[in-house]
Amino acid sequence: MTDLTKLTVSAALDGMAAGDFSARELTAAHITAMEASNVLNAFITKTPEIAVEAATASDARRAKGEAGLMDGIPIAMKDLFCTEGVLTTAASHILDGFTPKYESTVSGNLWAEGAVMLGKANLDEFAMGSSNETSFYGNVINPWRRTGDDHAMVPGGSSGGSASSVASFSAMAATGTDTGGSIRQPASFAGIVGMKPTYGRCSRWGIVAFASSLDQAGPMTRSVRDSAIMLQAMAGFDPKDSTSVDMPVPDFQAALSGDIRGLRIGIPKEYQLDGMKPEIQALWDQGIDWMKAAGADIIDISLPNTKYALPAYYIIAPAEASSNLARYDGVRFGLRVEGEDLNDMYASTRAEGFGDEVKRRLLIGTYALSAGYYDAYYLKAQKVRTRIADDFKQAFQDVDAILTPTAPSAAFGFGEKSDDPLAMYLNDVFTVPGSLAGLPGISVPAGLSADGLPLGLQVLAKPFDEETLFKVAGVLETAADFTATPDDWWRG
């Protein structure tokens, strides 16, 4: 029989519909692959019993002709989504033992469409990081390695466990969350497709909050079509989230026509950074050529406030985090460290419960919101954010989509940037502007670095125009024909 773990979601759905194999067989193959990939540390909690039970129910539904969009598909759930009766940690010590009594809307939508949960995927603590080196549960390992080099590489972050599980064929797909690039950057590092929908397309209800005005759930898959299928299952209006937008969810798969003739693709000059690696520039140029060959019109555009995006993001996101994470005080959730009095208990719990990167961002955010500095930092950053969004609005009057690199480099080794927060934050230089503007974005694997590591190209589109996003990404995927996979060294 074909190795079921190597199928795409689309192919697996076709195979189950044709009766070639069952959801139980598909799930069993992925449970075996998940157990064989322990060295990657992609999962914090594994749920094989839940997976088998869900797969059995899926087979019964399919037999009755009641299969959903994702019926029988084994996926990894980023451990930032609250899952009823299953440990939810946000990769933080401070949420020790937290088992929600409710289900996040996005995970609930996926279960309603028949998806099967293999387990909860590791991540940077509270989604704060670009390398998956800040998890309380240890580093996640990228299945990719440099050619001729056995040193472990980071999978990107914060959705590193999700990316690693999909790239290592341990999960067929995974959920991620993207605040400043946490789906797209790890997708680029792991050679998979990572898609961030428009802010408001997927409900945030039941997702452990990092920065509420930026957080957005999205799919991580091995093809653009799989991404369209999974987003269809995840998206929809949710009255429990005040930022959820009440509008119909289009048929995203139908947008994959393969025809972008006449579409206008914008190339922002401000994304050509000083010192950009030649292989990143070469890949971008290649992507432009692919778009031209497919009949698109290439138009140079300007996004003049791009250079202010990272500084503004690293004021806004930590400020919102400092507010959101104030609830973790040893009283209502997880860890509690006793003290001499209530204030001492608060301080001791937070000191022991949060890791260094989370503490760094909480201090920055609290400072930015403090009396006397709110106007100078937070308010000014919000004004900059409006300017950046206006840049995109202006650009989208002339173009239908924008093409850029996803990240300024391929994956790097552990410890290479962890001592330099500014170098780490620069990983998100191409993804943060779109996040601040609330735009949909997708990273598609498009080539290999000189070291044999995957590189991605990013497509951005207008708000709630995911159909154009998928259409362009599908053409990019076909042109790139990225078929490389990592050597499966982790299986021993």
TrEMBL record:
Report the active site residues: K78 (charge relay system), S158 (charge relay system), S182 (acyl-ester intermediate)
Q: What Pfam families is this protein classified in? A: Amidase
All residue ranges annotated as the Amidase domain in the record: 26-469
What InterPro entries does this protein map onto?
Answer: Amidase, Amidase_CS, Amidase_dom, AS_sf, GatA
Enzyme Commission (EC) number: 6.3.5.7
> What UniProt keywords are attached to this protein's entry?
ATP-binding, Ligase, Nucleotide-binding, Protein biosynthesis
Reactions catalysed according to its record = L-glutamyl-tRNA(Gln) + L-glutamine + ATP + H2O = L-glutaminyl-tRNA(Gln) + L-glutamate + ADP + phosphate + H(+)
Q: Which SUPFAM superfamilies match?
A: Amidase signature (AS) enzymes (SSF75304)
Q: What class of enzyme is it?
A: ligase
- Its job: Allows the formation of correctly charged Gln-tRNA(Gln) through the transamidation of misacylated Glu-tRNA(Gln) in organisms which lack glutaminyl-tRNA synthetase. The reaction takes place in the presence of glutamine and ATP through an activated gamma-phospho-Glu-tRNA(Gln).
Family classification? Belongs to the amidase family. GatA subfamily.
What does the record note on quaternary structure?
Heterotrimer of A, B and C subunits.
Which NCBIfam families does the record match to this protein?
gatA
Protein known as: Glutamyl-tRNA(Gln) amidotransferase subunit A
